[in-house]
Amino acid sequence: MTFLTILFICLLVFYLLFILRVIHGIGVVSADRFLVKKDYTPSVTLIIPFRNEADVILDSLKCAQALDYPGDKLEVIYVDDHSDDEGCAKLKNAISENHIRIIKNAHKNSRSGQKKGAILTGINNSTGEVIFTTDADCTFQKNWIKTMVSKFDENVGFVSGPVFYEDTKTLFEKFQQMEFAGLVLVGAGLIGINKPLLCNGANIAYKRNVFLSVGGFEDNMNISSGDDEFLMQKIASTGDYEIKFCFENSALVSTKGCRTINKFVMQRRRWASKSLFYKDKIKVLSLIMIYLFYLSFPVMVVLGISTDYLYLRLFWFALVFKGAFELGVLKNAEFLFNKKINKFLFAVAQFFHIPYIIIIPLLGIYGNYEWKERKLKR
Fold first, then answer.
1. Fewer Cβ neighbours under 10 Å: the N or C end of the chain?
2. How far apart are the first and last CA of the chain?
3. Cα(5)–Cα(300) distance, integer angstroms
């Protein structure tokens, strides 16, 4: 058995053990939903930054207006992040409630940290004990706030919630939906084993005093993304607060996937770019190991064709086990997202997922990208 064969097997074992831990963590956060709901009704501020969202902003407002939460304990702040369309005017004309208002992002329209600046502006103008954030192109259910709040107690500082891509019509959108569901579930599982790494800013909540005590975004304001994961990891690193995942369908926030491949690549590059700035080097090392595992697949194919057929057999062996274990993660989508996994599409997606995982992190590391009509840098 050659050194490369042993290395491939070691990477496979590492990845499968990682997935098993994720599945265990999902079981932990899933079991939390059977616990008695806490009688906790803090004051809440929902912050929704928006930039050029005229086409969808009123859908967001309808959800905010329908929220089932005590009116004297809820405020909703829309933060205009230097929009140049009619979205702000549409909002102003549609808002009639006193607890919903619009403010301007106090931070300049720069090339990095814009969303963090908008959220920080919202926090500085808020009164809520618990801060919620979502995006203006998202919709949510009337019990969203209540369900997420039920996960808080005196020890919990941060709660992450599920996000799902809806209205998938094309094959490309269906692949996105499956991949994104996997990301959300992996994030949930890692929280379940007390290794919080991934979350999505479209559905997070944290205590205002905890945000202030850890310094908020002050050490990463110059990074264009990470208003969610950096904050969660920073809160977890103090050891003073617990991180929870709300594994309940009523906490689900829905959004739409990217309509074009170019927008999808730009979004994923933006997400991948922040992994360079994770403070926990053990987590960074784990991500590198997972990357090497994916990189081993094309290497096995090349070696199998050029040197020894054994590598092709190893390729198929690894691919089958990878798919089987990942399917164990995605099975949880049936409850959380009320969505059955198409196993045929899942099998086909494997052949696209591997090159995608290899290429996107490299694009995130090198070069700038465009998002929300802005050219961004890492």
1. N
2. 42
3. 9
Instruction: Express each pLDDT in 190-222 by its tens digit.
Output: 999 999 999 999 999 999 999 999 999 887 777
Nearest-10 crossing angle of helices 343-365, 310-330: 100
Query: pTM here?
Result: 0.92
**pLDDT per position as a tens digit, 78-125:** 999 988 899 999 999 999 999 999 999 987 755 545 788 899 999 999
By DSSP bridging, strand 242-245 and strand 156-160 are: parallel
- The rounded radius of gyration (Å) of the Cα atoms in the chain is 21
**Selection from 166, 231, 180 nearest residue 205 by Cα:** 231
Residue with tokens 């057999």: 313
CA-CA distance, 42 to 162, in Å (whole number)? Answer: 21
